[in-house]
Structure formats: C-alpha cells, structure tokens
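User: Just a sanity check before I run the rest of the batch. Below are the structure tokens for the first item. I only need the designed sequence back.
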C-alpha cells in the first residue's frame, strides 16, 4: 500500500488543528498510517511536496485566502500544473459564485466549506483521494499557473511577499473574482 501524506495549508490555527484531527480519523478509517503536515505558508508546503517520494499519495488541503502569502486560488493552479499527481482539496469559508467558478476552472475538487466537522473533512479527504479532480480549463488554468509560478518565486526569495499579494489581488480583480 503506498504511503499517504496530507499537507494542510491554512493561516488559522483552529483550521490547522481540524485538518490534523481529520487526518487522524481518515487514518483510522483507511486503517493506514498517514503523515500529516500543517503550515501557514505556501513556500513551506512546496518544500514538503518536493521532498515526497514519487510513490507517495499526497493530498493538499488548501485554504483559499492566505493573508500575506500566495492566494490559494492561484496556488491551487500552481499545484495542479506542477504536481498533477497531488489531489488539491480547497478548504474555505468563501462560497462566492466567482470563487467556486475559479476553483472549477482550475481543476480543483469542490471545496469543504468552513466551519465544518473533523468527520466531514475526513470524509471529503477520502473522496478527494479516490476521485479525479475535474479537468481544468486549459487557457485559464495556464494563466493562473503562470501568475502563481511568478508569485511563488517572489515569496521564496523572501522579499516579494507584499508584491506577490498585490499581483494576486490585481489578477483576481482582472478575472472578476473579487
């Protein structure tokens, strides 16, 4: 049985705790050990992803609004582009039609809406691991992935966080998501 890793990216401490608890429940449900990481930053999540063995199944539980970091809607595109084998499960309180459209067009699973229970999150994690995400819209996905790639580079340098956030915000306004 391949190993399983869950990486939670969320700026809210209670959400990180919930992701960890849901991963524990999922491990019991699957009767399998799961390695779980939670982080507040996309750069740290990328480091974790780059260090995963190729045979490891990976699920990223992604908050869509990360203050001071790469916007989760765009970061999800980046993950789908550069880590196509990784399942991306959005975890958000944002249920605006435009945000839902962006997630769908970028090939992400339907979001888990906050607030939620650990049991429901574990159930959705299991579903995300067992089903393929919808195919992204090629043109929009490529555009988002390119913006996200640039933002990830700025954030990784450690000097461009505010610039990356401005770029994300402007690109989302341009796309009509704000």
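Assistant: Here's the designed sequence for the first item:
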């Amino acid at each position: 049985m391949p190993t399983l890793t869950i990486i939670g990216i969320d700026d809210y401490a209670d959400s990180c705790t919930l992701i960890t608890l849901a991963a524990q429940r999922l491990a019991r449900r699957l009767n399998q050990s799961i390695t779980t990481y939670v982080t507040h930053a996309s750069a740290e999540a990328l480091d974790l992803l780059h260090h995963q063995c190729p045979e490891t199944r990976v699920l990223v539980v992604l908050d869509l609004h990360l203050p001071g970091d790469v916007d989760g809607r765009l970061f999800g595109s980046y993950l789908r582009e550069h880590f196509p084998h990784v399942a991306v499960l959005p975890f958000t309180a944002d249920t605006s039609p435009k945000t839902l459209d962006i997630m769908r067009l970028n090939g992400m699973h339907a979001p888990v809406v906050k607030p939620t229970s650990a049991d429901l999150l574990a159930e959705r994690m299991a579903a995300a691991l067992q089903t393929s995400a919808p195919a992204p819209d090629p043109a929009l996905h490529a555009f988002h992935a390119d913006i996200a790639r640039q933002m990830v580079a700025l954030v990784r340098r450690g000097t461009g966080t505010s610039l990356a956030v401005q770029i994300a915000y402007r690109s989302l306004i341009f796309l009509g998501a704000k």
